[in-house]
Amino acid sequence: MDELLNSAARLNRASADFLKADVATALTFSGIALESEDPLKRDRNRRAARKAYDTVVRLMERVTLTDGDVKILARNLQRLKSELDRLGEAF
């Protein structure tokens, strides 16, 4: 039974780490989109950032997050949403 609980805890920790990495990647995409003068590159990176945003918001409900994880994700999601808004995304 302890092994099962340890496995569940490791899965949850990995899931939380994935969410943080996904938001960081999305911020990279949105940053590239904001800086790009190429409309195709801008659109491609905007779409990738929005897809990651939607994925993280949806999956957050399934992961038990620490207070620190919540703060990091909330701050980065707020920044990402702001950047996506500047890129013309509607929420």
Structural topology:
Elements: H1 2-35, H2 39-60, H3 67-86
Give your account of this protein's structure:
The protein has 91 residues and is an all-alpha fold. The protein has one domain. The chain contains 3 helices and no strands. It has helices spanning 2-35, 39-60, 67-86. α1 packs antiparallel against α2 and α2 runs antiparallel to α3 (67-86). The longest helix has 34 residues, at 2-35. The protein is elongated, with a radius of gyration of 15 Å.
**Whole-number count of domains:** 1
The major pleated sheet works out as: none
What gyration radius follows from the Cα positions, in whole Å? Answer: 15 Å
Element order: H for helix, E for strand: HHH
Number of strands: 0
- Structural class, please? mainly alpha
The outline comes out as: elongated
- Fraction in helix: over 70%
Mean pLDDT: 95
Head-to-tail CA distance between termini: 43 Å
Strand content range: under 5%
* Low-pLDDT ranges: none
Oligomer: single chain
